[in-house]
Amino acid sequence: MKFSTVLTLFAAASTEAFSFSRADPSLALRPKFSALAMATPEKTADKNPTTIGWDSHKPVSVIPDSLVREGDGPDGNYPMRAKFEKMCREAQKKITAQIAEIDGEATFQEDCWTRANGGGGMSRVLANGKVFEKAGVNLSVVYGSMPQEALQAATERGVDRAKGMAPGERVPFFACGLSSVMHPRNPHCPTMHFNYRYFETDGGVWWFGGGTDITPCYIDEEDMKHFHGTYKRVCDNHDENFYPEFKAWADRYFVISHRNETRGLGGIFFDDLNDRDPDKIFAFSTEALNSVVDAYGPIIERHKNDEFTEQEKVWQQIRRGRYVEFNLVYDRGTIFGLKTGGRIESILMSLPQTTRFEYDHKPEEGSREWDFLQACKHAREWV
């Protein structure tokens, strides 16, 4: 079966079925995308390897100027691949520099790697800082083919998209993304996560995905107004429907189902986004990614020197346990990385340095901890 019959696919990090009220956009965009795609050189036998491999990551001291190569991977929009990678690399440098400045003590350790069949990545991780216990920003460029179960694990649409494929048939793909998780020491400073990505598969199928979300331990109304307000302004610059839809999507996605609570207080989240010209979605993704520190930095600066009690630190550790539960049980990016042979240190970089699990812990009704938990069970509007 030619994979060009597949309508759209999945995303490499947290994903969920797209909720816009419209017909499947990939059908309408196929011809348009063909005009954007550039011819690529004749494929070689290893361009869509049957497995990426746990040991396929070769450490290098200097990363190439670009990990995107025109002749690699499925046929598609090479210019967008290169442009998206360039944008991610610039954002990684900018964000890590700003976060190191906020920390004021620790610096980011950089690890680079490549793969013989194309792609590679760069992880920048800060540990044991003055403000941040752990913070990481990871760039990844991946060429390969995935098993159908990886497709099905990565997105709710994956189940339907695998129908009609021959048993054992693999899905050639290209993915590029920048992802991050930051865990501050002070329980009054929230954890923050973001991921922005671009995907392609054989047959001219493409889409963008991503988002930025926040996971505090306590509710500070002004903090939430600032964080959500920043992303509402970003969304409104591109489409006034983006913020309400993407905010609701984040509230649905970041749910720890076995506890019937979210891991935090949301933000924006989107996926399978290909309902308009790719350059317009690229512009939105670029502004959203470059607004991470604007949305998050002032909150950290405001609270990084706050005094806290031992009880507040314990609550932070318990909430970090919830973060671990979500990432290891439900996060589709983690599942996708593990099923496709991703670099394990980068996949698990999102986990906090320290955490705590207490048996049947219940905060006292009416307490700040209890109020926070209610917000995790019943989504609130912040702007």
Automatic annotation (TrEMBL):
GO molecular function: coproporphyrinogen oxidase activity
Pathway in which this enzyme or protein is active: Porphyrin-containing compound metabolism; protoporphyrin-IX biosynthesis; protoporphyrinogen-IX from coproporphyrinogen-III (O2 route): step 1/1
GO cellular component terms given for this protein: cytoplasm
TM stretches of this protein: none
Signal sequence range: 1-17
A GO BP entry: protoporphyrinogen IX biosynthetic process
Keyword annotations: Oxidoreductase, Porphyrin biosynthesis, Signal
EC number: 1.3.3.3
Any Pfam family hit: Coprogen_oxidas
Alphabetized InterPro entries for the sequence: Coprogen_oxidase_aer (IPR001260), Coprogen_oxidase_aer_sf (IPR036406), Coprogen_oxidase_CS (IPR018375)
Keyword Lipoprotein among record annotations: no
Subunit comment: Homodimer.
Annotated family: Belongs to the aerobic coproporphyrinogen-III oxidase family.
Protein name: coproporphyrinogen oxidase
Protein source organism: Triparma columacea
